[in-house]
């Protein structure tokens, strides 16, 4: 079945630096790739998504890139701030469901 | 407004109790979802309702019983649960069940089974 691999599992960066989280997927028919941020005790929050007809999308300090040939997509957060600390999940939409990565715990060091 | 609400926020129940979780959205979405999330894991899909009809049941034990009374409401009825059912239960909704629709989540109900 469809599988999404996410790396790293934990990422610690200095406040103000950039963070990059990478995901690979297996279903070549997948066309929609959302990213979710989950803070402690809260539900996942959709922060950005990308569809297969574009290679990059930006929203302020957050960007997502997609390489359909290599079947991988990445989340880039620039100028990290303490409030960026959370668990981030990538996903792809396959067979009417979201297939999730295992998650990345992002720690922002002051 | 992309709000999905869930009640209660926390629930503690014994293995012989019957309780219900409630989810509500007023975005006009026609697909609604129940997920179970264990600590440090991604959400696991349990059920999908599309146009108020159950379209996906991910082989969930019968002690979990979903219900969709109308297009805005989704319930999850719980009966004779086990301690391993303790988890965060999340509700989500999308415009439709097809591909490429943004899925919005509620804050979840933290369930503890004693």
Beta strand count of chain B = 11
Structural category of chain A: mainly beta
Report the C-alpha radius of gyration of chain B, rounded.
Answer: 13 Å
Termini of chain A, distance in Å? 41 Å
Largest sheet report of chain B: 7 strands, mixed
Count every helix of chain A, treating DSSP H or I runs of 4 or more residues as helices.
0
Which overall shape of chain B is indicated by the principal axes computed on the Cα atoms?
globular
How would you portray this structure in words?
The complex is a heterodimer of chains A (110) and B (114). Chain A is mostly beta strands. Chain A has strands at residues 4-7, 10-14, 19-25, 32-38, 45-51, 56-59, 62-67, 72-77, 86-94, 97-100, 104-109. In chain A, the strands form two sheets. In chain A, strands 2, 4, 5, 9, 10 and 11 form a six-stranded mixed beta sheet that branches. In chain A, strand 4 and strand 5 form a beta hairpin. Chain B has 114 residues and is mainly beta. The mean pLDDT of chain B is 94. Chain B has no helices and eleven strands. Classes of the chains: A mainly beta (110), B mainly beta (114). The A-B interface holds A 31-32, 34, 36, 41-46, 49, 51, 87, 89, 91, 93, 96-98, 100-103 and B 2, 4, 6, 40-43, 45, 48, 55-56, 90, 97-100, 102-108, 110.
């Amino acid at each position: 079945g469809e599988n999404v691999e996410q790396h790293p599992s934990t990422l610690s960066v200095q406040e103000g630096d950039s963070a990059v989280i990478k995901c690979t997927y297996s279903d070549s028919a997948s066309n929609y790739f959302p990213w979710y941020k989950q803070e402690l005790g809260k539900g996942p929050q959709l922060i950005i998504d990308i569809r297969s007809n574009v290679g990059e999308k930006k929203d302020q300090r957050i960007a997502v890139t997609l390489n359909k040939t290599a079947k991988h997509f990445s989340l880039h957060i620039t100028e990290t701030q303490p409030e960026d600390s959370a668990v981030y999940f990538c996903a792809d939409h396959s067979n009417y469901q979201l297939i999730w990565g295992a998650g990345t715990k992002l720690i922002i060091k002051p | 407004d992309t709000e999905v609400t869930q009640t209660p926020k926390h629930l503690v129940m014994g293995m012989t109790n019957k309780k219900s979780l409630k989810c509500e959205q007023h975005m006009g979405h026609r697909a609604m979802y129940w997920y179970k999330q264990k600590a440090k894991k991604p959400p696991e899909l349990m059920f999908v309702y599309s146009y108020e009809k159950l379209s996906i049941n991910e082989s969930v034990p019968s002690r979990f019983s979903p219900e969709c009374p109308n297009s805005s409401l989704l319930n999850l009825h719980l009966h004779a649960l086990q301690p391993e059912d303790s988890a965060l239960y999340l509700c989500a909704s999308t415009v439709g069940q097809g591909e490429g629709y943004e899925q919005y989540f509620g804050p979840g109900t933290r369930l503890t089974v004693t």
